[in-house]
Amino acid sequence: MQKSNVTRPSGPAARRGLQISLAALSLVAALAATPVRAEYPAKIIKIVVPFASGGGTDIIARTLAQEISPDLGKSVIIENKPGAGTIIGTKTVATSEPDGYTLLLASFSHAVNPSLNDKLPFDPHKDFAAVSLIARSLNIVVVNPASKIKSIPDLIAEAKAKPAKLNYGTFGTGTSAHLAGELFKSMANVNLTTVSYRGAAPAITDLLGGQIDVIFTTVASAASLVGAGQLRALAVTTAERSPAFPDLPTVAEGGVPGYAAESWYGLYAPAKTPAPIIERLNKAVAKAVQSAAFKRLESNEGLIMVGSSPEALDRYVRDEEARWRELIKDANIKAE
């Protein structure tokens, strides 16, 4: 048999060449086995608002979309999906792909719905990934300017002197304004007759007309009327005084120690959304709440800007769930 004249390399150089070839093959195999992920975000992001357009939550969501869009480099749109006390819109996000392209602008209802509804079609914690607490907001206690009630002590004294004679207007079962009033009745130990309305506007109309005596309401619904002297503000419902109403005392200062009731706005993604996406969104929110647009909302909507970590939002909402659960049970409040 004729011998081959091909000389095969040997020694250290040959071994190094073999190692490089094997490494290259391994890298090619790894790249082939790993799906290519586009950098987030690669398309339009949608924020679901579980309320009709025009309300406080919708305004917050649209301002947020406007501010985070340039930072993220993609359009951010709003989809209003009202119904069933926010359950319809919230469920939409709970069942969406966890890819960061469908988000939820949640508010007070997210923390109280578990206590108002025996069976929710989602778990407010297991089915969602917290992104950031955007802001907290207050309610104000208002009366007709012709009323002899000029302060929270006056309101308490009048209510105790005439049990069940004073009418307290509320709107939306389980809303922050509703539960702020219920908390006041409980902590001040007074009996106010509850008159339910379908919204803030008809309740305020009756307050202006003298049909009811007092309302715990949102800043947006009453601030202009207070400024025009058509309503008298007695107090804010938060634990601290509001920069928007520095001269207004808190309900706690007015003789109900420990009283505090506030609403809030938080951003959520579906559970199992990758951590880098949550981090990217969180940073965008933190930057957005420092913007001039959000600063304007501080006075117009009675907001306190936050921009928290995901963990802080989760802790806050769990605390809110716990504090309202007992009141809802004691007052036998049920979803409409």
From TrEMBL:
Transmembrane segments: none annotated. The keyword Signal applies. SUPFAM superfamilies: Periplasmic binding protein-like II. Coiled coil: none annotated. InterPro entries: BUG, Bug_dom1. Residues 1-38 form the signal peptide. Pfam families: TctC (PF03401). Keywords: Signal. The keyword Chloroplast does not apply. Belongs to the UPF0065 (bug) family. This is LacI family transcriptional regulator. It comes from Bradyrhizobium valentinum.
